[in-house]
Write a structure and sequence with these properties.
Blueprint: H1 27-36, E1 40-45, E2 59-68, E3 71-81, E4 84-96, E5 100-105, E6 109-114, E7 127-137
Parallel strand pairs: 1-3
Antiparallel strand pairs: 2-3, 2-4, 4-7, 5-6, 5-7
């Protein structure tokens, strides 16, 4: 398989800019990335629907296995839903529409950090999160 077929394209040309901190994507930015990536996507949770009456309580998180330079991709899982702890072994980068925690142990335990405090920002609003094994999603 060619490298280009499993690595996400960097969509810095995304025309959507809502003034949200770089570490948190807007729903529109997330939808744009999903629509334009070359990554292998697996969807879990609810379907993405920003017009839903409960969309304010919904978070979309995309977490992926591969980082090459400033691009996040490879095998990615897209979760949309409410508060939960996601099992996310082999995660190296992630993005979300609300602040989430990412932890080095399963069960949202161990050493955890917030996406809003991302130490290594990547292209398209992603954060480099090596060693992540679980992701804590909240409703806020």
């Amino acid at each position: 398989m060619a490298v280009g077929s499993v690595i996400a394209r960097d969509s810095d040309s995304n025309p959507v800019d809502k003034g949200i901190p770089m570490s948190i994507m807007s729903d529109e930015e997330m939808a744009y990335w999903i629509a334009h990536t070359d990554a292998q996507l697996t969807f879990i949770g609810d379907s993405i629907n920003p017009l839903s009456s409960r969309s304010a309580l919904t978070t979309t998180v995309t977490y992926c296995s591969t980082r090459i330079d400033n691009v996040c991709g490879g095998r990615c899982t897209v979760y949309t839903g409410s508060a939960t702890c996601l099992n996310a072994p082999d995660t190296n980068c992630l993005a979300a529409t609300k602040n989430v925690g990412f932890c080095n142990k399963s069960g949202c335990s161990g050493n955890c950090n917030q996406l809003s405090d991302c130490g290594v920002r990547m292209g398209s609003g992603y954060c480099y999160t090596p060693g992540t094994n679980s992701i804590a999603v909240s409703n806020v």
